[in-house]
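Fold it.
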Amino acid sequence: MIWRIAYTLALYAALPLILLKLWWRGRREPGYRRQVRERFGEYKSVPERPVIWLHAVSVGEARGAEPLVRALQTEFADHAVLVTCMTAAGRETVKQVYGESVLLAWLPYDFPRAVQRFLEHYRPRLGLLMETEIWPNLLAACRDYAVPVVLANARLSETSARGYARWPGLSQPAFAGLAAVCAQSESDAARLAAQGASRVVITGNLKFDLAPDAARAAEGIAWRRALGRPVLLLASTREGEERLLLEALRGAVGAVGETLVLVVPRHPQRFDEVARLLRAETQGLGRRSHGETPAAGERLYLGDTLGEMAFYFAAADVAVIGGSFAPLGGQNLIEGCAAGTPVVLGPSMYNFADATRLALESGAALQCANAAAAVRAALALCADPPRCQRMGEAGKRLCAAHRGATGRHLEVCRRVLRAPARD
């Protein structure tokens, strides 16, 4: 208890910085300045039906949760599904993916009274936290209010596990308070159990259950055919990676040929910044958001739209996965595998460690030590269509073989809701 008191006092001390950061981020993303009272547990609309609540912190979690949200809506049709998030891009993604079919709100900051107001307002029958969202005061309040919480699609890297282990008095009661944990893999399950989580079930990764948007995928295939030349996708790139990859492309200029390099940054607030960077490399730059088509001589094209990764992966011959060339743990390679697009990875993929291992073993992916090696490998694949096809088919088989996590999650939810309240 004393650890949580100290944690709470530190949160209150940091409140001015939290508010300043919220205002600062709102300069580029106005969504951060909207419904701010919700971040402190104050909400307007009262749900008309019992609530099942799912927390998806940002874009990746909101998209990855889609199979589970749809299954919950079918299984518990008499309930409303509330989706909470923490980032402006995540909130926009929830609107885009789910429309009016779910309730949408900010999850409050982890102040005791704020999380109590949240629970008193929505009174959820069940809570699901996507991946690794452990908030000590929130989980303590859920226990006090008899709200069972499931950690869904749970993963825990070795680095994160070491971080939690430094604060056992704070983290272990939080993990122990979970009603169940749906772990992505055996290694995730072992690390979560070591942190104090009980009732750990290996369910697999929900992202394997995500089917590419068929209409957008068909549009991407048609776009690539009309273009008539190879397309190399730099997918979900993070800050600093575009420069690394562009430098590698300059070093491999002889191998680029007519290949179009399609750059899709991970965060929408960076679209204009990346556009300026790309314009310094080329005389013409088309942007997807402007409805522009790459001209015959253009080498670079900016994919600056949200919710179109199915289009981008389908439009590409090969995809280089961002977030993997800085120590960030990588972005979602499963989307590329599901689309039948060969993926090339950098060295840092710890957020998708199990999926990376499976993709490498199946022949659906290549992993390289740095950006220069990744660009060389990707360009070599672009020049080898038969190998691309083999890798793409391997990716599709991999995704088909590992589907089923949604059903296993749903069974855990049924079991938790049937269980008597815990003391």
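DSSP finds 19 helices and 14 strands in the chain.
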